[in-house]
Amino acid sequence: MSTLVVWDERLLGYDMGDHPLDPVRVELTMALARQLGVLDRPGVAVERAEAATDEMLATVHDPDYIAVVKAASTGRRVALMGLGTTDNPTFAGMHEASALIAGATRRAAEAVWRGEAGRAVSISGGLHHAMPGRASGFCVYNDPAVAIKRVLDLGAERVAYVDIDVHHGDGVQEIFYDDPRVLTISLHESPRTLFPGTGFPDETGGPGAPGSAVNVALPPGTDDALWLRAFHAVVPGVLRAFSPQLLFTQCGADTYRHDPLANLWLTVDGQRAAYLALRDLAEEVAGGRWVASGGGGYALVECVPRAWTHLLAVLTGEPLDPALPIPQDWLDLATARRPDHPLPETMTDGGSTDWTPWIPGDTPSQVDRAIMATRNAVFPFFGLDPHDPRD
C-alpha cells in the first residue's frame, strides 16, 4: 500500500503569532516521524505542496471572501467576514499560507482518487471550521472541503468524511449539507459546552440530502473506552450502509485529556486506537482509499506530535509500538522550541483501549444517551434499526 505525504516546511507559514494554533505542533510531528523512520518506509513518497489557485478555492469559497483574505494578507487592517478577531487574526501572507494548505490537502485527495497512491495525508490540513464566506475557529480556507470537492469533480459519487476532532466539523458539514454525495460524520464534545455550538444529533442533512450528516455529541469527561464505544456504535454501521468510494478523515488531536481548549479525556493510546479503526474501515468500505488530515490540537509537545506520528505510522504501514521511547534528539528539539511544555518519554500514556460494545437496554450513561440520540436521528435514513446492536 503506497502512501503519499504532502509536506514541506513552507506549510509552517500558517502562523497567527501568539495563538493556540501554533505551527510548532506540525514541525514537531514531522521531526518525530522522521526520527522514528516512519517517512523512510517502503512505498512512502513525500511530495512538495503546491498552493490552491483562486479558481480551486472558489469551488467552495465565495470569490468576495477570497478577495478579502487577499487584502488582509498585505498587511491592511481587516475586520470583516470573520477576520481580524482573536480567533482569526490576520497576518502577512495569510492567503498564501492558507492556499498552500488547501492545495496540499487537495493534492492528497486527488492522488488517492486517481490511483497514484493507496492512501495520502496532509498533516498540516484539517481546517474544518472555515465557511464559504467567512473565517471561523482558527480556519481561513476549508481544505477538507476543497479536497472533497475536487474528488467529486473528478467523478466520485460517494465520499465519506469522518471528523474526530474535539470540535464539531461545522464548516465541512455546512458546505455539503445538501449534497447527497457526501456523508459527514463528526464525533465531538457536546455543543452545549464547546465551540462552535453546533453538531447536535438532529442536524441530519438538508432537504436534498436527508441523513447525510451524522453527529455524535459527547459529554465532557468522555474517556478512551467511552469514546471508542460511541465510535463503534455509530460509525461502522453508517459507513457500511453508505458504501463510500473514498474515506476522508480529519484527525484533530484535541480530544486529549490535557488539551487546554477542550474537555474530553482521551489518551494518545485512545487516539491511536481510533486511527487503527479508521484504517480498518477504509479497507472494508472504501477499497482502502483513505485520505487523512490533521486538525486541532493544543497540547503542542505532550500530545500532538505523538498522536500524529502514530497516525502517519498507521497510514504508511505497521503501527508503532506504544512503548517505543522518544528519541533524545527530538526531546532536545522540543525543549528548544517550547521549554515550558512537559516532555513525553514514550509513545504511550499507558491508556487502556479496551471498550465495551453498546447494547440497548443497559443502564444508560450520558455517553449511551448520546449514542442513542444519534442512532435514533439518522439510522432510519440508512434502513438501519437504531435499537439493534448488529446495525
Automatic annotation (TrEMBL):
Gene3D superfamilies: Histone deacetylase domain. Belongs to the histone deacetylase family. Residues 19-314 form the Histone deacetylase domain. Keywords: Acetoin catabolism. Pathway: Ketone degradation; acetoin degradation. It comes from Dactylosporangium darangshiense. Signal peptide: none annotated. CDD domains: HDAC_AcuC_like. This is Acetoin utilization protein AcuC. Pfam families: Hist_deacetyl. InterPro entries: AcuC, HDACs, His_deacetylse_dom, His_deacetylse_dom_sf, Ureohydrolase_dom_sf. PANTHER family: HISTONE DEACETYLASE HDAC1, HISTONE DEACETYLASE HDAC1-RELATED.
